[in-house]
Amino acid sequence: MALTAEERKELLTLFEVPKDLGAEALKMLSQQEMQLILLMKKDTISFDKLKEKIAGAEIADHPERLIQSAYSRAVLDKARDEDGALCYRISNFYGRYPYFAQFEYEEYARFPREKKDRLNEWDFELYYGVFGKDVQAKIRGEETYVHNSTFLTLPEAFALLEKHSGNIYRVPCNCKCMMDVTEKPRNVCINFDSGDNTPSDRGHGEKLTLEFAKELTRDWNRRGLMQNGEDFAICNCDGQSCYPLQMARKAGAQGIYPRSNYLINWDEETCINCGNCARICNFNAFVVGEDKKVSFHPELCWGCTICSANCPKSAITLSPREGAGCAAQAASIHH
Predict the structure, then answer these.
(1) pLDDT tens, 72-113?
(2) What parts of the sequence cross the membrane (predicted)?
(3) Helix, strand, or coil here: 80?
(4) What's the CA gap between 68 and 203, in Å, rounded?
(5) Domain residue ranges of the chain, discontinuous segments joined by +
(6) Which fold would CATH assign to domain 262-328?
(7) The whole model's pTM is what?
(8) What architecture (CATH level 2) is domain 5-91?
(9) Cis peptide leading into 258, omega within 30 of 0?
């Protein structure tokens, strides 16, 4: 049953959709999900009570299936009452959009480019509004947490994988999917968390063995994706689509966020000018000139370390920055 104009207006308000993206938002919702949002409004409802309400409103013949489907598609979020019992509440468009791009990519890919650009413009503005203040605090020297906090060397990434062996999930990168990146691999994010409202709990992602996760990470590193993260996830970023790096650029946080624990040292005499570093550098810090020789521009370097891991002659080495964490304190590193 089609929505009335008033119902459509209420739906878009409840789901926190910007006025100019209403048509796109409706394409990301089923008719049953629209009715579910209107039924629940902003209430947090126990699982059993929600099943009763859905049945009473005759929205679905099998309420439990609708709840599970809407949760899987990030139309609903899980919540817990004071006793830990399962409840649900509606998500919002900011939560639904990345899941649509990640896990229903073929549908999303059909959107016109100008609509995808507008969706990303809106999404990034909201994202920066939530997290940008914490990056600014880091710039001022304040200790505060921001996700994707630190660039990781391959050994550091492997150590994280080993720590979470048995709970490693691969999911598509929301940044790359939302921006519809086609020239780089998209199915590259590693999650370790499987609790409420995580992709794995919603039924998404591929569970990986430790050895396969290491093999993939090494391959992504070789292809120019940067390992970045902390104890709940490893993001395999590129320099253009990665939201945290876009935020860092906007805030002027190079060298502060994401943190790099290493300085990049280039030995021009050892370099054979193969160009591997220039091919994978996300910041144009390494370039190959018209004379076919490599040059290094440290002022452009963010310290992601992938160049060192892929130098065949160990002409690029790492040395710990002052104040770096324990993992970086062991002496200079080369691969």
Answers:
(1) 999 999 999 999 999 999 999 999 999 999 999 999 999 999
(2) none
(3) strand
(4) 9
(5) 5-91, 114-251, 262-328
(6) Alpha-Beta Plaits (3.30.70)
(7) 0.92
(8) Orthogonal Bundle (1.10)
(9) yes
